[in-house]
Specification:
The protein is α/β, with parallel strands linked by helices. Helix content is about 50%, strand content about 20%.
Length: about 240
């Protein structure tokens, strides 16, 4: 009887393990900016907040930022403007930023969907793919996209808030770009046994080549094919720019 129970226990353990593995047998990874939507959403969110706040202090800070940027650009072509722009939000509360982020998503982001990509996303969802957005955009507004489409997860750039929920104007962790996307995904899938999984990747940019290394099938979202797309064996999803 002990041997029979041991065999049964081993059988059901294998079945449960197989079921768990099957949960991740079909995965889709979507970049967001210029892929799901037709623009870069990160910096425009900061400027949206500034315009909606109608704060003289914020506008003065932005003018000073532009002056500094113009000076740095003459010396350093790759001046990190994204970090610099994020500093403008320092001092704002999480609650007010979260509300503005929701409005930004509803009225600025949703109107810029690439229909071809949204159709593909919905198609894969119907086929029971686990779908993740992997973006350098900010999670504070991208979470509303995840909620609306009932997706499986989000990897994005986080904004740091202190213990009093006041924005510190810096990234919380690393900017989710380039190799950072790859590292986050590797950590997330480490214990999920995806060695035999079908993983589909969608992006508009060669900066996402590290992420595409994880993919068994790759799609490039663009108006025309570029050299890097051919080199990465990407299938083109041709979109029309208005």
């Amino acid at each position: 009887m002990t041997k029979v129970l041991a065999v049964l226990d081993n059988f059901f353990s294998e079945q449960n393990e197989q079921k768990e593995n099957n949960d991740y047998d079909k995965i889709a990874l979507f970049d967001f900016c210029d892929t799901i939507v037709d623009f870069q959403s990160g910096n425009p969110f900061i400027f949206y907040v500034i315009n909606k706040k109608k704060s003289k202090k914020l506008h003065i800070k932005n003018v000073l930022r532009k002056l500094k940027l113009s000076m740095f650009k003459t010396v350093i072509k790759s001046y990190p403007a994204k970090r610099d722009i994020l500093k403008l939000l320092k001092g704002l509360t999480y609650d007010e930023l979260n509300k503005l982020a929701q409005n930004y998503y509803l009225y600025e982001v949703r109107t810029h969907f690439n229909k071809e990509v949204i159709d593909k996303l919905n198609e894969l969802k119907e086929q029971n793919y686990k779908i993740y957005v992997v973006s350098g955009g900010y999670s504070i507004y991208l979470k509303f996209f995840i909620e609306e489409f009932d997706l499986d997860g989000l990897f994005a750039t986080d904004i740091k808030f202190n213990t009093n929920n006041i924005c510190e104007g810096v990234f919380d962790g690393y900017d989710c770009m380039g190799w950072e996307k790859y590292y986050r995904l590797k950590r997330f899938f480490k214990d999920k046994n995806i060695s035999n999984s079908e993983i589909i990747g969608f992006t508009d940019s060669k900066s996402d080549i590290p992420m595409l290394k994880l993919c068994t099938k790759k799609y490039a979202v663009a108006t025309k094919e570029e050299t890097w797309m051919t080199q990465q064996n990407c299938e083109l999803i041709k979109i029309s720019k208005n």
